[in-house]
Every structure is written in structure tokens, then in C-alpha cells.
Write a structure and sequence with these properties.
heterodimer; A: 527 residues; 8-stranded mixed beta sheet; globular; B: 176 residues; mainly alpha
């Protein structure tokens, strides 16, 4: 029997308000209102509540626990993901996977925990005016986060990851083991549906319980409609309650706060700012939002691969990430995804007999993904968060020729890698693709595939930017401590502050930066 | 010019109306299957899925397998009901086009009614949408592709044929 941390905490007296049960108007007050409970919000909640501040944490998703996680995509996606895992860019060309539950994306991610790459930090110093944040100043926070969350390299590899490593070895490409944030992991392979054993050290089982134990209040199923401010300073926020189906049901809560920490993620945080019409003299809110757009390649192997079982990600290759320099041609990181039925069925292109034949091969499929490092080159400016008529956010992300060139190179690399690892057939995920049986065939086909939206299949689980941090007020919204430049009492602590993408999976970068900036904020608020 | 779904809907209806000057083209196609009661999807929308399910899922769900098609349709209905309001609105617009005679004529390039197409003809139509020069039709194709394939393959009843199963260590861990 798995210990239910959440049920026990609630029984012990945690303060929790569920929007689905909210009746009537209410006014509450606190020192710090934290919007979002993912990597940035979770860390901030623990640091600030343990510093003795009266903290409230609000998340628009539900509070779930290990016993709710049934290892089935059909319930996990609507329960735990933004837009039932069907969120897409404005033109529908890129699928976006983001968590929408207490713990945010940390509850559903695949546990990959990598430090911010050195070239990224150097680029931020050279191009974005960073003076305080560098690998030396962040190192203690990386170490602290790694110790808190059990982050260390995972050395058991499932076949999916082992074949990535094998292909790299054959081709003499570099690869490394992936550190994961787990303790006593059962190696099940269902991290994307919520961890049923509490092994994953997500915010749901670490910092949020720590904050609640320190007296914080959690509000789940509440959407922050607008921030309130007066005379250049934050005064609080208006929250709207959601029912069990995540629909507004008309009740609301007003919260007075002397400080707001915005940690709603790189689509949610700009959306709150846009809805609130905060001062933004250089019109930067929501601009330069990045995705690591990812192209995908399937490979059929003679032997069983069972890519749905075992740690989803344990090997990566950065062989092509920085080859042309940080500002050169679009680099890409090679990783693998877990292969579960809905994920495969919806992402694999084709229909009819071809599609069902591919589904029949599910246990023999190895899938590789290439994460395109966007935002470092002037031809790669990312997307823009906009509001629909109903106030919900949508990311407009036109894909530049620069990114498409990277996508084609990445498809070529993945096919070469998969054949080197022994693949019988390879299928680049593209609407005009065919199964090919050799690397020369793959090369000929991929070089001719049109690289265009809704032809090349693209997905992303990494949303960054939109509230850029930097040293220049004309190009950044927050300073290096996360302070919003144009309103007192507002901090942004999440992945939205990155001025480019990272070239690495973002959770550990957010943890480290959040630890630093939440500690600095706690000191300021205590002073 | 990029067409939005809303503008395509208006365009298709206007084109149909202008072409014939009559109401026939803007009226919904007649229902020639037995709609499932208790679903939230309108019968006209159910009908669109009813005939597209065995095309998208050829090899997994046969045209004459009524029980399996009903199962998939019920799953689609359930998935549809929990989509975000803006996504529901977009899909409703798409289904409205597909379910109306004028819209269907436009999107099918003059093909016969969906219910009259053979499986081979339906597959050909999907291929045209999949690789169409209009981005809007590729969006529509992919939206239907996701909804229909997820509705079947997300259901554990589909898994034995794939030999997909939960890991041995998980036995007894989840009781669903």
C-alpha cells in the first residue's frame, strides 16, 4: 500500500480550499500570493512559507494524489494537463503538453533534470545583459535542488533509451545519462500520467506539502482572472472558482496581498499580465515565447522494445545542440519519449490500415525526438501569447525557415541514428512520409519532404519565455531577481523569465532560479 | 489569405447559396444511421464520425462492426464534452460544415454524400485532406485524426490486440 501523502496531510489539518466547493464571495488576505504550484511556484511556496510569511498558493488545476493516478492516458490527460493535453499553437501546428494540476508540469513530466547549459548562460550574459546569474552563482542552487529532489543520473535504461545510446555509439556521437528527480523509483514508465508510487519528487509531494506544513494555504481549481494594483504597486488578485469539470461556476475570491509571485508558466503568466493590463511600456508581455519545437521519428525493430516501460528518459545526446555555436544554425537535442497508446496514436501520421499497422507495432517501436533550440538567433524569435475573446491564452508561434532547416537536419540525424542502432524500418513523423528500409532511402525522402506547418508533426513539452529577464528595461520585463520592472510587489518566478529557450529540459533550471530568487524575496519581505 | 474556420463556414454557405440559390445546400444532410441516444453530440455530428471512424481506424474497427463503432463514438462524445470551450466551438464549426450539404460539397470537392462513399472513397478523401494545400483542411484532418484515434486506442478494450499492458510491477497498484 502506497502512503497517500496528500490524504494524510489534509487529515492533519492542511489549509486547502477547493474551488469546486466554493460558495459565495469571499475575501482573504496574505503576505504573498503565489500563482501556480509548479516548479517555480512550488519552490517559492516552500521558501517563503518557511521564512514565516503568510503564503497562499493558487492553482487552476485540481489537487490529486498518488491513488488518483491510474496509469491511463484517457483519465490523466483531462485531469492533469492543460486543455486535456490537446493544447496547440494558434495555427494548430505544434501540440503543447503542460500540466494543469497541483504540482503543475512537475506532476506529469518525465523527470529529466538537467542544469542550464553553460553556452545558454553565456549567451544570456552577452546578449541579454545578465550580470548576476551565471554558472558560478547558480551552482549552489543547483546543488541544493538536486539534494532536495533526489536528482542523480539514472543508470538503468529501457530499450528505447538503450537504442538511442547504441546509435550514438555506432556513429561516435556523444551521449550522456540523464539525472532524474526520483527516490525509490519502481521504474514503471508512467511518469506522464502522475506517479502512482510517489517516487517522482515533483512539487506535489515535496515543496507543496512542505509549504502546507509550514502554514501555507492552498487554493486549487481557482483561475486568477486579474491582478489588482494601485499607484504602481500590487494589492492583490481576483480569483474565479472552477467546478469539478474545470468550468467557471460563478463564484470568486478576492485576495489582498502585499506581494504576488507569478508562477503560472510561460503561457499562463503572460496571460495573467495581459488580462490585468499591467503597465508594459515596451509591449514585451507574451513576446519571445519559446517551445523547443520537437520533431519525431519512429523506428521499427525486430526485437521488442517496449518503449512504454521503464524510466521514460535516461539517455540524451547533445551532439548537435551547439555544433554551429549558440547563435549559429538551429541546434537540436536528441532524447526519447515513452510510447503509450494515445500519445502514439495521435502523433503518428497516417490513417487507415497504415496507422493500425503502426499501432500493432507499438511494442517494437523506438521513437526518438529532437528538441530544436529556439531563440538564440535573430531569425528565431519564438511566438507570442495572445488572449482569445474569452480571456483564455493562445500561443501564436509562426515557424521560421531557420527553425524548419533545423527540423530537416534533425529528421535526418534521427533516421541515421535509428538505422545505426539496427532499425528495420524508419518513419519520420510527417504527413507525406513513408516507411523506409535504409538510411540512403531515408536521406533521399527527408531531403524532399516539404517542411511546413501541419505537414511536419511537431510537439513540445517545454514552454519558456514571454516575461523575459535581463539587464535592459527596453528588452526585459523582470530584473535578475525576478522583480517586475513596472509594478512594485510583483515577481515572476517560473520558466517565463528565460529570454531564450534553454537547449535543455527546463525543470532544474527553474528550480535553481526559483530557489535563488525566492530566498532573495523572502529576505526583502522580512526586512 | 488565410481562412479561419468561421470565415470558411461563411464562405461555404455563401458559395452554396449563390451556386444554387436554394436552401437545399445549406440544410443538414439527412440522417441515415441510428444515432446513439444520450450523447451530447448532435445526430448530424454523430453521423460524420460514424462514417469516418472505420476509415481512420481501418484495420482496427471494421465498417460493419456496429458495436465497436458505437463504442468509439461514445468515447468521442465523452472526450468532446471535456474539451475547452474554445476547442469545442472550433470543432462544432468544423462538424457543422461537414454535416451540411453545401459545406460537404465544398470540402469533398463534389463527392457524393459521406454515407454513400465506399471505404476506399473515404480513404481517398482523407488523403486529400491530409495533404491539402489549404492549411485549414490539414487542421481539420488532424483534429479529426486526434479525436478518433485517441477515442479508440485510449480505451483498454483496444489494448489486447496491441499486446500493450501495464507493467507486471503495477499489478495491484491501480484498481480501476
Amino acid at each position: 500500500m502506497i502512503k497517500d501523502i496528500i490524504a494524510e496531510g489534509l487529515a492533519s489539518g492542511w489549509q486547502h480550499i477547493d474551488g469546486a466547493n466554493q460558495q459565495g464571495e469571499q475575501e482573504l488576505d496574505c503576505d504573498v500570493l503565489i500563482i501556480g504550484s509548479g516548479a517555480g511556484g512550488g519552490i517559492s511556496a516552500q521558501v517563503l512559507s518557511q521564512a514565516g510569511l503568510k503564503v497562499m498558493v493558487v492553482d487552476e488545476g485540481p489537487l490529486k494524489s498518488s491513488q488518483d493516478f491510474k496509469m491511463q492516458e484517457r483519465s490523466a490527460y483531462p485531469d492533469l494537463y492543460q486543455e486535456s493535453a490537446a493544447r496547440k499553437t494558434k495555427d494548430k501546428a505544434i501540440s503543447i503538453f503542460q500540466g494543469r494540476c497541483v504540482g503543475g508540469s512537475t506532476t506529469v513530466n518525465w523527470t529529466t533534470s538537467l542544469r542550464t547549459p553553460e553556452p545558454t548562460l553565456q549567451h544570456w550574459q552577452q546578449r541579454w545583459g545578465f550580470k548576476q546569474l551565471n554558472s558560478q552563482s547558480l551552482a549552489p542552487y543547483f546543488v541544493k535542488a538536486e539534494q532536495m529532489l533526489g536528482i542523480s543520473p539514472w543508470l538503468q535504461t529501457n530499450q528505447n533509451n538503450a537504442l538511442l545510446a547504441k546509435g550514438c555509439e555506432v556513429l561516435a556521437w556523444s551521449y550522456q545519462a540523464i539525472p532524474r528527480n526520483v527516490k525509490q523509483c519502481w521504474d514503471l514508465g508512467y511518469c506522464g500520467m502522475g506517479c502512482p508510487t510517489n517516487a517522482k519528487q515533483s512539487m506535489l509531494v515535496t515543496t507543496i506539502p512542505a509549504a502546507l506544513n509550514a502554514g501555507a494555504t492552498l487554493l486549487s481549481r481557482f483561475r486568477v482572472q486579474t491582478l489588482h494594483f494601485d499607484k504602481g504597486a500590487i494589492t492583490g488578485a481576483q480569483l474565479q472558482a472552477l467546478d469539478a469539470s474545470q468550468r467557471l461556476h460563478g463564484e470568486s475570491i478576492k485576495i489582498k496581498a502585499r506581494q504576488v509571485v507569478l508562477s503560472a508558466g510561460a503561457i499562463g503568466s503572460p496571460a495573467v499580465l495581459l488580462r490585468s493590463k499591467v503597465p508594459d511600456p515596451y509591449q514585451l508581455v507574451g513576446k519571445r515565447t519559446f517551445l523547443h519545437p520537437s520533431v519525431m521519428s519512429g523506428a521499427v525493430f525486430e526485437q521488442a522494445v517496449n518503449s512504454h516501460q521503464g524510466a521514460p528518459q535516461s539517455v540524451y545526446s547533445d551532439h548537435f545542440v551547439w555544433r554551429e555555436g549558440s547563435e549559429g544554425e538551429c541546434g537540436y537535442k536528441l532524447e526519447v519519449p515513452p510510447v503509450h497508446p494515445i500519445l502514439l496514436a495521435t502523433k503518428i501520421s497516417g490513417f487507415g490500415q497504415f496507422h493500425s499497422d503502426m499501432m500493432q507495432q507499438i511494442n517494437h517501436l523506438q521513437v526518438t525526438i529532437a528538441l530544436l533550440r529556439d531563440g538564440f538567433n535573430e531569425q528565431s524569435i519564438g511566438g507570442q501569447v495572445q488572449l482569445r475573446d474569452d480571456g483564455s491564452p493562445v500561443l501564436d508561434y509562426p515557424i521560421s525557415d531557420f527553425v524548419w532547416r533545423g527540423a530537416r537536419r534533425a529528421l535526418l540525424s534521427m533516421a541515421e541514428l535509428q538505422f545505426a542502432a539496427g532499425a528495420k524500418q524508419v518513419f519520420p513523423l510527417h504527413e507525406q512520409s513513408k516507411l523506409v528500409s535504409s538510411w540512403p532511402q531515408a536521406k533521399t525522402m527527408i531531403e524532399q519532404l516539404p517542411m511546413q506547418a501541419l505537414a511536419t508533426r511537431l510537439a513540445s513539452a517545454h514552454v519558456m519565455g514571454g516575461c523575459a529577464m535581463g539587464g535592459d528595461e527596453q528588452t526585459s520585463l523582470v530584473d535578475e531577481e525576478g522583480n517586475y520592472r513596472w509594478l512594485d510587489g510583483l515577481s515572476v518566478i517560473d520558466g517565463s523569465v528565460f529570454p531564450t529557450s534553454l537547449g535543455a529540459n527546463p525543470q532544474l533550471s527553474i528550480y535553481a532560479m526559483a530557489l535563488r530568487n525566492a530566498e532573495l524575496l523572502a529576505k526583502r519581505l522580512q526586512a | 489569405m488565410k481562412l479561419s474556420r468561421r470565415s470558411l463556414l461563411k464562405y461555404s454557405i455563401a458559395t452554396a447559396a449563390l451556386a444554387s440559390g436554394g436552401a437545399w445546400l445549406v440544410s443538414p444532410a439527412s440522417i441515415d444511421f441510428k444515432p446513439m441516444p444520450k450523447l451530447t453530440l448532435k445526430p448530424q455530428y454523430q453521423q460524420v464520425f460514424w462514417y469516418l471512424i472505420p476509415a481512420f481506424l481501418e484495420g482496427a474497427v471494421a465498417s460493419d462492426d456496429v458495436a465497436r463503432k458505437q463504442h468509439v463514438l461514445a468515447n468521442i462524445d465523452q472526450a468532446f464534452s471535456i474539451l475547452e470551450p474554445h476547442t469545442q466551438a472550433e470543432l462544432n464549426q468544423l462538424l457543422e460544415i461537414l454535416a451540411s450539404r453545401g459545406g460537404w460539397l465544398l470540402l469533398s470537392a463534389g463527392a457524393a454524400r459521406l454515407s454513400e462513399l465506399s471505404i476506399a472513397q473515404r480513404l481517398l478523401l482523407l488523403q486529400q485532406w491530409q495533404q491539402h494545400y489549404l492549411q485549414l483542411l490539414r487542421q481539420a484532418y488532424q483534429g479529426l485524426h486526434e479525436l478518433i484515434t485517441a477515442a479508440w486506442y485510449g480505451d483498454p478494450t483496444a489494448w489486447p490486440e496491441l499486446a500493450y499492458h501495464l507493467p507486471v510491477q503495477a499489478r495491484g497498484l491501480v484498481n480501476d
